Amino acid sequence: MQNSAADEVKLPTNPPKFRKFNLFGRLIFWSRWLQAPLYLGLIIAQGIYAYQFIKELFHLLINMGTLDETHIMLSVLGLIDVVMIANLLVMVIIGGYEIFVSRLYIEDEADKPEWLDHVNAGTMKIKLAVALIGISSIHLLKTFINPAQTPDNVVMWQVIIHLTFVISALIMAYTDRLMTVTHAEHK
Q1: Number of domain units in the chain
Q2: In contact, 131 and 84? CB cutoff 8 Å
Q3: What pTM did the predictor assign?
């Protein structure tokens, strides 16, 4: 049985009994802007990591003639670690601002990151988890390259923490996939 246009009920966009809560709702919606200074702080942290990278690279360049292969590898892994953390910061700053605060309106930008076109809270969590796994992997690799410098219990905890990151990321990815499939089935 089809409904006619007369049978459809149109609800007002702002029902009278809820109008008194409109101001409160606007305050809650506006509160997302309180995150803007947090993203600014992360941009400052990004600058600190850029400084750290330059400092470590300069140290590597100055001492490259006196360092053995292990120390060079450890220095390069340190540089990679800084870059991966900086990448994580970029994802959180750009993605978080776009998802939780306001649109960036950068559609016309030629160098707009591709991942930003299909980012949502679920994919953002998975990207962050994968980045944390990468950072944890670098730390484990540094430990395994120079095991004599690290006590066994510290190595054990690093492996446990790394495996926890991996298992958590797999569970988040599986949960996100289930939610995506369920959402698609209900459309």
Answers
A1: 2
A2: yes
A3: 0.70
